[in-house]
Amino acid sequence: MSAINTRVSLLLQWALLACAAPHLAGAQQLIHEERSLYRQVLVYEEPDSRCLCFTRECVIGRQSCIDLRQPQRLVFEYTRMMLGALFLDPEPNNILIIGLGGGTLPHTLRQLLPNADIDVVEIDPAVVRVAEQYFGFHPDARMPVFEEDGRAYVRRVLRSERRYQLIMLDAYDSQYIPEHMLTREFLSQVRALLAPGGIVAANTFSSSRLYDSESVTYRSVFGQFYNLRSVNRVILASNAELPSLAQAAQNSQRFVATFKPLGFTPQSVLSRFSTSSDWNAGARVLTDQYSPANLLNSTAR
Amino acid sequence: MNRAFLYLIAGWSGFFVMGLELLGGRLLAPYFGSSIYVWGAIISVFMLALSLGYLAGGRASLSAPSLRRLATLLLLAALSTLPVLLFGDALLERLSIAFGDPRFGSLLAAGLLFSLPAFVSGMISPYAVRLLVADRDSSGHHAGKLYFVSTFGSAAGTILTSFYLVLYLEVNQIVLLMLGVSIALGALVCVLPFGIEA
């Protein structure tokens, strides 16, 4: 049954691609390209949007996009779902974001929470440059960028006193997953880096066999979590008891006005909060010793 | 028959080195990340240790070379990998705390954990060439075949480890499995009743 579903959804994706492709091919213009230490970094522009891509013609996955007419609007649904973390803790003062992309998340959080300290970790210096030059990302004294491996950063900061009320993991994409950042040990370190009652938000995967392994791995570290599914999947978890859905709904009301210029309603995100376990609980937990995340991600469920 | 074992040892040793190198990346990643520096450190250590191993293996082949001694090298390479399993995590933990810079921390860590097994494995090829070569005319031919077997083994070790083994086994289990094969093959050749001289 699930295999049929996968096929149907793949077919749909192809159909969508086929419809979108001619339009894209005509209007899409490459305005920047460079080969970084890790990948190709490409910026494409269409009449009203600009996207960061790691593959030619953005064939697989756009990393980040801005709407040139309404730069504040959040183009991707996953970034909106990531902001659902604010329904669990509406005022985090210390935030860590691992994985910069076009800088949409830190940029938006800076606007929503002008007083928060936001630390950003990005492994690829070229991505940092491009985010600043093409996507309006401006690091400052209270929003520094650390150019290093996310896991090395977490380990380093664990030895200091610094703790975060919100940690966002946005370091995975469909082509490559840093496997050492999707293991029980890493998530335990992330959990330890949270202040009491802290929240972790992870942008991850909704299809492939990895969905099962990833789910049981998060479950083994955080217990119950909110699962938000669309094309992407966002996991929201806490190192204390997970705030109730009623509490989340109440907190979400605070954002009706502030989310408006971002182009969505809190309700549209809230409606995706789910605590049901729609995965194979018998899947193998990912650990530092066993972490074939990329291989699992290329296998259908 | 002896020749078959000789090639088998050289081919397996190639498998072992590359399998270990790939898993080395896995072992270091939790402590130093998997940035390009970390891979650079691991590859440098393996290349340097192998190069010194070639020198040492060639020199060792000057005095009383035998298939049994070649097999002993395989056993030594396996035994020198034991610290990775026994103290690997403790060592990596300390080094990653002592060194803020991921480059030199991972270089030192890779050096301490992998230089000895890679060095001893490097000794095997030139030593095996000595056992194979009967005369000057055929020396290039034999050396070519040996390089083929050993590098083919490396390719097999790389692809099997990265494509398949990591999907079924834990990192330490794969290292243990490779140690088991090395010890079994080395011990078998050591106790072989027939011709000690190749």
Task: Write a concise keyword list for the protein shown above.
heterodimer; A: 301 residues; 12 helices; 36% helix; globular; B: mainly alpha
Describe, in plain words, how this protein is organized in 3D.
The complex is a heterodimer of chains A (301) and B (198). Chain A is α/β, with parallel strands linked by helices and 301 residues long. Chain A has 12 helices and 11 strands. Chain A has 2 domains: 2-67, no CATH class; 77-297, Vaccinia Virus protein VP39 (Rossmann fold, 3-Layer(aba) Sandwich), CATH 3.40.50.150. Helix content of chain A is 36%, strand content 21%. In chain A, the strands form 2 sheets. Chain A has a 7-stranded mixed sheet. In chain A, helix 7 (184-192) packs parallel to helix 8. The radius of gyration of chain A is 19 Å and the shape is globular. The termini of chain A are close together. By secondary structure, chain B is mainly α. In chain B, helix 1 (2-32) packs parallel to helix 4 (82-98). The chains are: A alpha/beta (301), B mainly alpha (198). Chains A and B meet through helix 6 of A and helix 1, helix 6 and helix 7 of B.
Q: State the largest interface.
A: A-B, 25 and 22 residues
β-strand number of chain B: 0
Roughly what fraction of the amino acids of chain A lie in strands? 15-25%
Please state the structural category of chain B. mainly alpha
**CATH homologous superfamily designation of the largest domain in chain A:** Vaccinia Virus protein VP39
How many β strands of chain A by DSSP?
A: 11
CATH architecture of chain B: Up-down Bundle
Per the CATH scheme, the topology name of chain B is Growth Hormone, Chain: A
Q: Biggest sheet of chain A: strands side by side, in what order?
A: 7-6-5-8-9-11-10
Radius of gyration of chain B: 17 Å
General shape of chain A: globular
Q: Total helix count of chain B?
A: 7
Mean pLDDT of chain B: 93
Structural class of chain A: alpha/beta
| Oligomerization state | heterodimer
CATH A-level architecture of the largest domain in chain A: 3-Layer(aba) Sandwich
**Domains of chain B, number:** 1
Radius of gyration of chain A from the CA trace? 19 Å
Helix tally of chain A equals: 12
